[in-house]
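The freezer alarm interrupted the setup, so I double-checked each line after restarting. Inputs confirmed:
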Amino acid sequence: MREIIFPGQSVDRSASREGTYMEKGEVYSKVVGLYDSSTGSLISLEGAWKPREGEKVIGVVSEIGRKDTYRVNLSVNTEGVIISGRYERYRFRVGDVVEASVARVESGSSVVLERPKPLGFGVVMKIKPTKIPRVIGKGNTMVDQISNLTKCRISVGMNGIVWLSDGNLQLAMAALRKIEEEAHTSGLTERIKKMLSGE
Amino acid sequence: MASSKNKPELLKNGKRLDGRELIQLRPIRLEAGVIKNADGSAYLEWGNNRVIAAVYGPMEAQPKHTSDPTKAVIKCRYSMAPFSGLSDHGRSGPNRRATEISKVTREVFENVVMVNEFPGTEINVYIEILQSDGGTRAAGITAASVALANAGIPMKDLVYAVSAGKIGDKIVLDLNMIEDNYSDCDMPMAISPKSGDILLLQMDGNLSTSELRTSIQHIIDAGKTISAAQQDALKRFYASRQPEGEGESEGKGAGMDQEASTG
Amino acid sequence: MEAIDIVKGNYIRDLIGKGQRPDGRDMLAFRSISIKKGIIQNAEGSAQVDLGGTKVLAGVKVMVGSPMSDTPEQGNQIVSAEHWPGAAREFEPGPPSPESIELARVVDRGIRAAGCINLESLYLEEGKCWDIYIDIYVLNHDGNLIDAGNLAVMSALENTKMPRYENGEAVRTDRTTPLKVNSVVATTTFAKIGDKIVLDASKDEENAMSARLTIATDGSAIRAMQKGMSGSFNIDEVEELSKISMEKHAELKRIMEQ
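Predicted 3D structure, all chains:
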């Protein structure tokens, strides 16, 4: 049975490490989350993005540094750096949308990016990072479905930025907003399918 | 506390001017997520107080020299709108009183927010008193706590605040403006309900040590009601985001968000 | 402006160039408007306006003041605006920004020029008059703060009850007489995006605009105008927009009177 829990609320000792803290041998939630006492799973309903190595992210080039390094806006608290030399294939300009993966998490609010790829003309959308797994869906089912039904090209960054191009952009963006709003509910894939097929 | 000659009679037949019992809170209505731009927000109607709180962050600390490489810096701004009081138009922006309240409020949240998780960043907490009727710092903390939770900021606990005081020799809970002005003691407090830890404590007036203990006990007892209102606001925020037909009925919320009347 | 806004701006310019808006609205349509009057009982008048995602509160305080030396038999109307830092990430605490001062002054100008409040009627006695303090509080910024601010101020004035004047002081326990409001001023703010013009731009659209034009009317005449930003309008555009502004006055007046 899933229920909404709050910071300071006691949870089972088997509860997931994510979203909890331990004090005097007891485990408590530190977020507003959905907690399933039978499995110990705790999903935070809100929260900032915390970068992890290997994660795919999307950002916008904000500054061209010396020696062809690039600064990339990833979120309000994290900046990515592309160190060129290893990636001469691309020259970026300020305002370019870039897809890359996190190579290394530096101290503070900066990450080093690798395998950058320009995404070209399109639109970007900010989605709450905690809702991104729902946007992607199990085995990419959700994002593939949106892509198929709207004919949009879509790339999803774990940092909460989604890039879209071609196809019915407005419909695809409306679907993404709906997923963000209703991420904590069940039967979402079906509802999105209905919405996109105009049923 | 103004010890005025034309001090009004604050208690009549053991009841307060607004009809409350000695130990009784004013009605509390809370709503989460009212400011779309903010990472988290809350709107609170507490008696005649009207308070709005918004949280932004964690985000890159600006200017750079205010950042701490080991933890997130909390910045707090409590302020009163110039039309919030019953008397004349106030000055805009924080005055000395507001600056002090901002400081003690910040210290409350420095206790519960897990600042070590976001080094080099800042978390901004904005509290605006749109209408004041006594106990606004407590209302501000109670609302800001919900806004922080709504922003997904990891915290040890959902803090609440309320004041206790004394009228004559009677201990009272949750003083309104006129009681605050003419009572014999006013003591706002912020509490971490999980532990009972006192995170804010201010007082002026006169109080015996036994009255102090009684007052704190009343504040802790009142916490059940205030915490429930905070949790309920957060629950309703997510319930209202259920797909059609599956959401819980609304209507208990405060009146900040409304249906559009025209299109 | 964040780097991401550049990307959004390019997309919006492209879309609007094709005659479409991101939210599917007509080029000259307002977003949904809702008005709630009297929500701050401590103030003599108040109103909250939601214009799409923009949320603005206006409060009116009436107090005893002194006439200005150049208008010794008039009261005063003082409009201020607060870009509350909780309303947008880019709003910063501190002294009023040029943008918030412009917002207050543009709203003030329309209401003053149309004579919404008869300042002579605010004169009380030698050296005493009513001062009408009007504060615009931006609570959530999603574009077009001027029109939202004007709607909130007009609605708050309509909601204002005057204190009683007694022995040189304002008695607020007895607020029954409504403030006399002589006319309804409505502002319409247009944004130029590429070579197209839209009404009531959202924040994303504002990030893509090159110029902005606000026209305040009272239904019979143009009462105030303000052009903003570095772009431009030509004579035909200004004439056309002034006609639209007169038409929109009726629509906005109806919403305010509901």
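Quick read of the result. Chain C has one domain: 3-257.
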